[in-house]
């Protein structure tokens, strides 16, 4: 297995290099540059040129790429043109916010979706199954940003139960910061979980239904194993296989962020950073983020394969 | 509040805002704006709260302020390096380093952090810092702090976009900018670097120097003792600027949550009036939810300078317990015509006599064809109205109140086109030489309102027989739009809609001058150059002459119709009735220190 992992990691290297070149070229191919449209009209034409020159925007693309790679290997992702700070710091700040919210949402989603999927599968075709299926379809059909706006309006503004903006209160100090953070992610996290269960519930439900009719379950029943144990030890575990395959992506996807949640809750995270960097041609941020997302995706695939290999001996990789 | 707003090319977001937001009054009338334009709101710039301030509310309650914005703020506290309005807004209780006090016309007056004296014989500007001026760490504000912003801006390694050729009137500035010298020779300190006096030697003075926001004398200080040792290209990213900044205003920063909020308490070293409110927080609130946030009384007011949309005004204007307060905005939307090119060798704009849009009557006809009054009645929500000239009415003294601009007149538009030889041939008019005429209109993607506005323009032009189409077939993404317009020569866009935020000193050289790179339509004429130059020539030291020349320039630009302002708007704020002392006037130099609260809870 270690050999396989090593082989996969080695294959990733040319993939990442290719990805980085593509990302770099595509970012540069967009019309405009970081100084387009937002320059102070006081600046002389010479100053605009000067700023572009000192930022290397007139260098040939391969030279710009090479400079970027060299800096990258020194741990320097460059300076954001928009934020005037190191890209690594900027991403670091936003990644923390995004991780808090994503991890919280993911835990809640699994906590909600797994029992629901199991319960629906167990009671296939009966009332609980129908109710759960309707719930997942309804939540799947409503655009998420609508849910966020309505949720914020009702629970944030009308009932005043939750904070409505930001990731932490400006007045929180010491341990209060931690509780304030939790308080701030509660509403977007709950909404994200309540309205993001469809995939897991459906996978879980269909796996449970499949497993229920499988030979090993029939054998266990004939041996007189109690129903509770059959579900606990046989059906539930085996039904988790596709969910486990999702796991790798879910973990590496924690950093992707959500543009809707972040915008509506004024929650500074990775999603908003990415969109803003594209809008303002903040090349250094765009390239760093796309490369990071690309690497995380590759790692996600590997992680999913490894998890599958561990949990399912039939497809163990070696 | 930052008095010296600078000129900015307005981004897509801002233009959306500018389009939906709007415009301003009849020229900065302190009491009430004119109601000549139908449907325009009657906003005052002061909220005269009759209630008594409460000592306990001031001491124990938090003044909650919202910064309406869809993106996190950038966190650059140093005004020379910040290049966006939201940073200025969220750090404004700290004073934004403002050096001078101004009167209602943005003229620099004595009594601020420093006073300014112009010596026209010696061509010097003497800046004298008040004796008790201190930074929020207790360190005195000294002469070097006045000079250091120029070094930050002009350093060859600077990341600041504020440098302009105008600064080169200061002796030694050009050499410093080119890296030939380590100091700017034009700065001298009669009492030493740690003294209170700075003398700036220029090659010539300009009447615009009497006003804050001019392009020659920088209007803020920088804490040299705090920044010392940090390379200028690393300054914007440094902790001194981002995490532990110093301020000279009434409040000091207690806590900063990156991109989302700032928290303030009184600066005990402040030289001016002691602030009454003991605690202030400013939170970024999405523009999607700002209306609801105000309606549910989560905030006392929105930041002065923060963008409030016209649709928000519609939703909030009748709100109980909130007063709508507004001042004409330092911005305007405009049409520009492509009539030439930018010569990169001479670095000057050049008119092309054969340009498609080179005919004055064609341009005038297009302006008479559109109906800004109707559009503003429909979409302005009372806070936007048709502009009459390129000087926004906030400049009470300089804006030409007698100008009529281009009120909708289809008959006149047709007449002008007929007179100019643009005869109809089938459905569309053709050029005087008989060739087909297709005009490409460039505009940026924006809100549903801006989309409807652009469609209305197209229909109005088509109604007078002009075949006008959207350049590239649709509205353009902001970067593509400016990328196209900023090319030295382009023929994709013949007429464009854009917006400018302007400085509190309205000289238009940087926007419409012969060598201005932002003169994106490339309009140049001998008379335009003469008129613009006359705004700051020797005679212009006489205010009445300068005012007269400003009016002549506006009249000339309206006649030429190469750039035509389309609408002005109010900068407005909802203010809760527990707030006392809310005054948006430029002359209210101590905005934050003048605020107090009449009750402990937002009412």
TrEMBL record, chain A:
Transmembrane segments: 99-120, 132-159, 185-204, 240-265, 285-311
Keywords: Cell membrane, Membrane, Transmembrane, Transmembrane helix, Transport
Residues annotated as domain ABC transmembrane type-1: 95-304
Membrane-protein topology: Multi-pass membrane protein
InterPro entries in UniProt: BPD_transp_1_N, MetI-like, MetI-like_sf
Cited Pfam families: BPD_transp_1, BPD_transp_1_N
Location within or outside the cell: Cell membrane
Key word Transmembrane helix present: yes
PANTHER family xrefs: DIPEPTIDE TRANSPORT SYSTEM PERMEASE PROTEIN DPPB-RELATED
Similarity field: Belongs to the binding-protein-dependent transport system permease family.
Record-given protein name: Peptide ABC transporter permease
Lineage of origin: Bacteria, Bacillati, Bacillota, Bacilli, Lactobacillales
Automatic annotation (TrEMBL), chain B:
Keywords noted in UniProt: Signal
Keyword Transcription regulation assigned: no
Ranges of biased composition (kind: Basic and acidic residues): 28-54
UniProt cross-references to Pfam families, sorted A to Z: SBP_bac_5
Region: Disordered, residue numbers: 26-95
UniProt cross-references to SUPFAM superfamilies, sorted A to Z: Periplasmic binding protein-like II (SSF53850)
Domain of life: Bacteria
InterPro entries named in the record: Peptide/Ni-bd (IPR030678), SBP_5 (IPR039424), SBP_5_dom (IPR000914)
Stretch forming the signal peptide: 1-22
Chain ranges of the Solute-binding protein family domain: 112-512
Protein name (record): Peptide ABC transporter substrate-binding protein
Organism encoding this protein: Ligilactobacillus pabuli
Lineage, opening ranks: Bacteria, Bacillati, Bacillota, Bacilli, Lactobacillales
Gene name linked to the record: oppA_4
